[in-house]
DNA sequence: TTACCTTTGACAAAATAAGTCAACACTAAA
DNA sequence: TTTAGTGTTGACTTATTTTGTCAAAGGTAA
């Protein structure tokens, strides 16, 4: 289901950390991390960064996944989701170029 | 600032409706509609549809603008916003194709 | 003045998200 | 068969965000 959750779970396991220990390190409740890894609760960007750091993983792609998931969540079941993404992309490029 | 707000304001004026009257027709407070048209508050999709109907305008592009604005709002000031959009697009296409 | 118009800010209420906790079920080692 | 570890669940509280309501202001024109 959740790409980000899966990835972070794998990274945690690769780092040899239990859910409890990882949660403690980043200062959240175990229950919450468990739910986040299984896509039952949303990550925050800050937490993603903390976890990337803890797992010694590169955070860029994780942040991209985080944002992308957030966007997809907003657009799920929308008939014009794809069109909306294209418009958003166009506007973002414009803004970037124009520095608005 | 807000494309959608501007568009809906223009449509309202073209329909010859005052803010008060339009707001009354769609059953919201004038203050709220005023703020929405100026981008100070967010539209809901339902309201966009109601307004499109009231102004006798085609709602498709308005809904696309609405969604796109929502997405851009989530991604504003994000370094990886564009990358996130691309990932989201890819996943959405995949989902659509696979019917997941 | 009167009668409209839009905008503003302050506040209350409702809805969502985030945090906390205790208990459960499972596995494996002692 | 205890003990200690694992992850999961649900109920609950608290905090934050969003939404709705209202009154008043300032503008314009008859």
What does this structure look like?
Two copies of one chain form a homodimer. Chain A has a single domain, classed as Orthogonal Bundle (434 Repressor (Amino-terminal Domain)). Chain A is built from six helices and no strands. Chain A has helices at residues 3-14, 19-25, 30-37, 45-54, 59-75, 81-98. The longest helix of chain A has 18 residues, at 81-98. Chains A and B meet through α5 and α6 of A and α5 and α6 of B. Chain A binds a DNA duplex (30 and 30 nucleotides) through α3.
Quick description:
Two copies of one chain form a homodimer. Chain A is an all-alpha fold. Helix content of chain A is 72%, strand content 0%.
Number of discrete helical segments of chain A: 6
Low-confidence stretches of chain A: none
Q: Biggest sheet of chain A, open or closed, and with what strands and sense?
A: none
Oligomer: homodimer
What distance lies between the first and last C-alpha atoms of chain A, to the nearest angstrom? 36 Å
Structural class of chain A: mainly alpha
Average residue pLDDT of chain A: 95
CATH architecture of chain A: Orthogonal Bundle
Instruction: State the helical fraction of chain A.
Output: over 70%
Please provide the ordered H/E string of secondary-structure elements of chain A.
HHHHHH
Global Rg of chain A:
16 Å
CATH fold annotation of chain A = 434 Repressor (Amino-terminal Domain)
Notable characteristics:
homodimer, 100 residues, mainly alpha, 434 Repressor (Amino-terminal Domain), 72% helix, elongated
């Amino acid at each position: 289901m959740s790409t980000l959750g899966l990835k972070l779970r794998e990274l945690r396991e690769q780092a040899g950390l239990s859910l409890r220990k990882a949660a403690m390190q980043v200062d959240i409740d175990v229950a919450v991390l468990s739910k986040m890894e299984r896509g039952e609760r949303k990550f925050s960007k800050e937490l993603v960064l903390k976890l990337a750091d803890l797992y010694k993983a590169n955070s860029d792609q994780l942040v991209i996944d985080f944002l992308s998931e957030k966007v997809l969540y907003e657009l799920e079941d929308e008939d014009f989701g794809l069109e909306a993404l294209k418009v958003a992309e166009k506007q973002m490029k414009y803004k970037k170029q124009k520095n608005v």
